[in-house]
Amino acid sequence: MPKTRKVAIWDAPIRLFHWCLVLLILACWITESLGWMPLHFLCGEAVLALILFRVVWGFVGSDTARFGFFLRSPAEALRHLAHLPRREPDTEVGHNAAGGWMVLGLLGLLLVQTLTGLFSNDDDSFTEGPLKHMIGKELSDRISSVHELTFTLIEIAVALHVLAIVVYLVLKGHILVRPMILGTKELPDTISAPRLVSPLAAAAILLVCAAIVAAAVRLL
Length: 220
Ligand code: HEM
Ligand code: HEM
Prior knowledge:
Blueprint lengths: L3 E5 L3 H23 L2 H24 L6 H4 L3 H9 L14 H23 L1 E2 L4 E2 L8 H36 L4 H6 L1 E5 L10 H21 L1
Antiparallel strand pairs: 1-4, 2-3
Helix pairs in contact: 1-2, 2-5, 2-8, 4-5, 5-6
The structure holds protoporphyrin IX containing FE (2 copies).
One protoporphyrin IX containing FE (HEM) binds next to helix 1, helix 2, helix 5, strand 2 and helix 6.
């Protein structure tokens, strides 16, 4: 066994982003089910601000947050999946080649979900998204159908996402959840640590993203 050491792989902003996202999506689902639409809008707008933050952080953030760092070719992702049943030490710094595509898919679906919500409407509960007034009823109805369909796709994607975490644990013995909570992972000495960017920069970016969303839903 090579010597290992504890390495910080996920910065605090990514971890906070992830667990706030989970809670807010749960809140979006519960509020909609209970018909608490003003709260549904608020939680949905918070998700939109988080996704915008994550996209920017994917370009200027810590190494493991950057799209350029974890997005590898589809061929590499398939090669990675072919090795899934192989039990081997976890030497991954950040997302693996297949996980990178999952991240992109989840972020894309959530962006569609939040943007369509802004223009959706529901005749039964007399609910209109905050930007519905910018478009006609027919287009808003079609967008509402996309909002509904995308939620089903998100449910499937999240189920697969959690299943993947369990499969890595059972087949490979890799514990992925602990680093997403604590930030650190045991890695061989030979692997260099990723560069992490100050959380203050993340806070400033999140503030700007939240301000843009708040201004868009109130002023447009
Ligand atoms: C609404 C539910 C969820 C959504 C939308 C979601 C979304 C995401 C996203 C977007 C990432 C990428 C993080 C980033 O780079 O920004 C991620 C990573 C991750 N998520 Fe989730 N997640 C959900 C639920 C969960 C749950 C319940 C668990 C725990 C079992 C979990 C465990 C993880 C782990 C361990 C990673 C890192 C995977 C790796 O090492 O590559 N997620 N998730
Ligand atoms: C990730 C964030 C979001 C999730 C998970 C979500 C989820 C849902 C779900 C499950 C429905 C019920 C669809 C149906 O079966 O009819 C719904 C409806 C609705 N949501 Fe969202 N939503 C999100 C974001 C937003 C946002 C940002 C807004 C606007 C600010 C919004 C506005 C609406 C409206 C107006 C409806 C009623 C129209 C319809 O049924 O499609 N949602 N949402």
